[in-house]
Predict the 3D structure of the following.
Amino acid sequence: MIDIDFEQLRRIGLTPAMAQHLAMHTAAQDGSQTLMRLVEVHRETLRLHDGQVEHSARALPRLTRELDERDTALAVGDWVFAGTDVHGDRWVHAQVPPLSHIARRDADGSRHAVVSNVDTALLVMGLDDDFNLRRLERYLTLVQGSGVHPVVVLTKADVAAPTAELLAPMLAQLRERFSRSLDVLAVNGTHPSAAHALAPYLHAGQTVVLMGSSGAGKSTLTNTLAGEALQDTGAVREHDSRGKHTTTSRSLHCLPGGACVIDTPGLRALRPDVDEATLAWLFDDIGRLALQCRFRDCRHLDEPGCAVREGVGGDRLRNYHKLMREARRDTMTVLERQQQASVWRARGKATRAWMKMKRGA
């Protein structure tokens, strides 16, 4: 049995819900182990926080194998049980099953853990050339599929949209494409007013994660919320407002008010880890309109009488189709993927032969 000091651990994000969840797991652990929170993940080592100080540790090979078998891995925000060996080295023995978990997939379909045990995801997007609704839609799909509450934070309002007249058209685009229940805030990430605007999501014990592209202002916002320079920041390119990866790894920081913030680097491969059913729920407007299509098996591509094509913006519908193809591919076996690739190659070969014959005619 492991004793838990709730007040000590609350400053690194222990909530009453997690404390109750822990009651089912502490009894099985060795009393010499300590409950800690994972604040950084590196290639070979981990950084843990016990509510007072940070420690360096490594995961036991047994734990790594168990997580691999479940197609997951340790992530920043995880609660773990750790202990020291006779040599004084610290090892992570077990992971507490997370209450929330965000994962993404690579192009080959492999799953990668992003963060665990967060209450709110602040989806950071600049109002400059970083403003991209299709990419934001992917971040929303990534987050909403995990059960984490999303909040859109529009940064650089002071330079890109300093007046209501400039800001209004961008907000209108958001409201037209997404649900009106989605929380949207426009802030100057360098000003203390940003911390005041985000205060409802930063109560003691709460954990938020900042997600968005490089150069969107995540690290700047982290420093503003903390009231000190915790993260390096960099300039963005003038021609496209893209930034360098000044944040190279995910890290959890304690804020003065008792909340925790996890800063993340921009994701180069942004494939949500969701299935077809979750996508249908997230794009519920398409599902509702599909009931009005002329054909029951309408694919919403080129069929006549398609109510979806008439009622949904073309860019949103194209993004939906692309996400659905990715979700279906992720559920395929290796053999099915090989067969699909063979079909595509055959079609491409036939198309090239037809074009060659047409040019020669």
